[in-house]
Specification:
The complex is a heterodimer of chains A (236) and B (422). Chain A has 236 residues and is of the alpha/beta class. In chain A, 27% of the residues lie in helices and 31% in strands. In chain A, the strands form 3 sheets. Chain A has a 6-stranded mixed sheet, with helices on both faces. Chain B is α/β, with parallel strands linked by helices. Helix content of chain B is 36%, strand content 17%. Chain B contains 15 helices and 17 strands. In chain B, a hairpin with a 2-residue loop joins strand 9 and strand 10. The two termini of chain B are 33 Å apart. Classes of the chains: A alpha/beta (236), B alpha/beta (422). Chains A and B meet through helix 1, helix 2, strand 7 and helix 6 of A and helix 13 of B. The structure holds zinc ion. Zinc ion binds next to loops of chain B.
């Protein structure tokens, strides 16, 4: 891999890809290129070793594939090495749950990757619908807006901070949504979470490049989409 | 009302309660239609089933029944099968796409006595409809992601079907050999005709539904696939397609002159002919009937308006968007997206669709969720113009062909708007 280009690694799209998860990779690449940052993207399947990269993405998945992904990632250790050297990890839904110490799938408890201080189990109801809230002020981002569709509940330990305080939807438990620690960030905003949250995409790019600011780009359409969704969900 | 009740000879053989229910169902449907509330097939069926929950079973009894299910192509395949089967006799069908038991009840009641029925069935309802109608043959088209915010996961659906067919070994299946989910659903069913119509959308078939292992695709032979652990392998299809022709199980080639566009509809035609063949029709005699189908519940319909030749294509999930791009001509194209209840409230799937085949065409976008689409197209590097409505799109496009690709409720809105004008 060329070291001059930003390396984006999508972890196991053959296992962890539902709900337009490809979108996050496409959006990050698009927003980097718009700033003149060269990008290479890599889709790493479950039978391949994880390469060294700058940003790792994990998507949602059904129970069986989620359990298999945990088993393979624990054996591979590539994501653990990535976090040790402060690469960026952005994970949604099943991928988010994998970051923690444990999760439930197929009615049983599985060990997770233990990359951040969270654990997940099952809620009594499935959380389906618009999800939004105010982002942790330390991250300096505007209101989070997304769509959730999951049966999990996630408990945050003292080693992480919630990504947002829930205003609409369920997220982790109806009060908080997502979690972050260092350069690892997870959310229940599934699929192309970054399409409605371009500032979050830019935060991941800033973490990955070490740049404090990125040049302006034309955000006409993401801005209109955000405004329309925030208005529709009473968060505007 | 009494005239309606007494004029129906066919219901003499039904139990009294079922006969009454069938009449009420038919009358309510007629009233609903007269009142301008849709085609009445759902309300009529609901009323009928309130009187006799076994009405569908009563109405199905004595007919040779074919069911058609799958994520995509079921309305068109049902229409094709109905057309092809007409060479053998009268065919009842739910031609308005009302594909749950209320719609089936209504369709059979409305048709009166027929030797055959071809029913499109919602994937979730297939086990119940099989139990009620005792079909001779069931066509299984494909299973892929659809309406993600509420649909059962794809693998769960395949399992549900598999369990159902294990309980009904007497049913003949006409099944898609190209879709691993369908092959898993068929399981050990003893009587199967396999067809191959290609599978453009494969994102839901990377993982073996039997073991969770990786699915291998053949390098040289694109159609071949197998589970890396060996428990699921693509069956050899007996019916295949080649260009505009269907090759039947005996190797005979049937050239089709379909009015409906695209390779996917040649595949739907092959499925319909395989079903019809199993029910006893001569394929050479049945095949020309498919050319009489010009549109299906408004889909593929062509309408002239203000010098624009507008064609409507329905695309409701990632697999059907790929098919729509395949069918659409290289012409100005309007994309319309809503996210109401029938569409699903989640627009994430837009990022599962690669819109790059539209590059180089004039692309217009509209609908309640046009901004979701706008962001997707920008990232996809497909230039577009946002317009406020379908009417504005027609004004914006140059005279000549205008392709319209819309998801479910956006499609219905545009149909209604065209009906008002035409
Ligand atoms: Zn397998």
């Amino acid at each position: 891999m060329s070291s001059s280009a930003l390396q984006i690694v999508w972890v196991y799209p053959d296992l962890l890809s539902t709900y337009g998860d490809r979108g996050n990779m496409l959006i990050l690449a698009h927003r980097a290129r718009a700033r003149g940052i060269p990008v290479q993207t890599h889709e790493i399947h479950v039978n391949e070793a994880l390469p060294e990269g700058d940003i790792y993405l994990m998507g949602g998945g059904e129970d069986g594939p989620q359990a298999l992904a945990a088993e393979r990632l624990l054996a591979d250790r590539g994501l653990h090495r990535a976090v040790d050297r402060r690469a960026v990890v952005f994970a949604v839904c099943a991928g988010y749950q994998l970051l923690g110490s444990s999760f439930f799938a197929k009615g049983a408890k599985f060990g997770g990757l233990d990359l951040i201080d969270i654990s997940s189990d099952r809620g009594e109801t499935r959380a389906v619908g618009e999800l939004g809230g105010e982002v942790d002020p330390a991250l300096g981002l505007p209101t989070l807006s997304g769509f959730e569709n999951h049966g999990g509940r996630t408990h945050l330990g003292p080693g992480v901070k919630p990504l947002a305080t829930v205003k609409t939807g369920i997220g982790n438990d109806g009060r908080t949504e997502g979690a972050w620690a260092g350069t690892v960030l997870g959310t229940y905003c599934h699929g192309p979470a970054l399409s409605r949250n371009p500032a979050l995409a830019d935060l991941l790019l800033r973490w990955a490049t070490g740049e404090e600011t990125l040049s302006d780009m034309d955000d006409t359409w993401p801005s209109r989409l955000r405004k329309e969704r925030l208005t529709a969900t009473g968060l505007a | 009302m009494t005239g309606n009740l007494s004029s129906v000879e066919d219901e003499k053989k039904l139990p009294l309660r079922a006969s009454l229910a069938a009449s009420v169902s038919r009358t309510a449907a007629a009233l609903s239609r007269a009142a301008g509330r849709g085609d009445g097939s759902v309300i009529g069926g609901k009323l009928g089933m309130m009187i006799d929950p076994d009405l569908l079973a009563h109405l199905a009894a004595g007919r040779k029944i074919a069911l058609v299910s799958g994520t995509n192509g079921k309305t068109t395949t049902t229409r094709f099968t109905t057309a092809a089967l007409s060479v053998l006799g009268d065919v009842a069908t739910n031609s308005f796409g009302a594909n749950m038991p209320t719609g089936h009840t209504s369709a059979l009641a409305r048709a009166g006595s027929t030797p055959f029925a071809v029913l499109e069935v919602d994937e979730h309802w297939l086990p119940k409809v099989i139990a009620a109608t005792d079909p001779k043959v069931v066509a299984l088209l494909n299973l892929s992601r659809d309406q993600l915010d509420r649909a059962k996961e794809v693998a769960m659906m395949a399992q549900l079907w598999r369990d159902t067919f294990a309980k009904h070994p007497g049913i003949h299946l006409v099944a898609n050999a190209d879709d691993p989910m369908i092959v898993y659903a068929v399981g050990a069913a003893p009587s199967v005709t396999w067809f191959s119509a290609g599978q453009r959308w494969r994102e839901d078939a990377h993982v073996c539904p039997a073991c969770g292992g990786h699915m291998e695709r053949g390098e040289a032979d694109d159609a071949h696939w197998q589970c890396s652990n060996g428990d699921l392998v693509r069956p050899t299809p007996q019916w295949t397609v080649d260009g505009n022709a269907v090759i039947d199980a005996s190797g005979t080639r049937h050239e089709l002159k379909l009015q409906l566009p695209g390779k996917v509809n040649v595949g739907n035609a092959a499925t319909a002919l395989a079903v019809t063949h199993y029910l006893g029709a001569d394929t050479a005699e049945a095949a020309p009937k498919l050319a009489e189908v010009a549109s299906v519940a408004g889909r593929y319909a062509q309408v002239e308006r203000d010098g624009r030749k507008i064609r409507l294509l329905l695309a409701k999930n990632p697999a059907s968007w790929l098919e729509a791009f395949d069918m659409a001509e290289d012409a100005p194209t309007l994309l319309a997206i809503n996210a109401r209840d029938p569409d699903g409230y989640d627009t994430s799937w837009l990022f599962d669709v690669d819109f790059s085949p539209l590059r180089g065409r004039q692309v217009l976008i509209t609908g309640e969720r046009a901004y979701d689409l706008a962001v997707r197209l920008e990232v996809n590097e497909v230039p577009f113009t946002h317009v406020a409505s379908f009417a504005r799109a027609v004004q914006t496009a140059p005279p000549g062909r205008l392709e319209v690709i819309a998801n479910y409720s956006a499609f219905q809105d545009i149909r209604a708007e065209l009906d008002r004008v035409v």
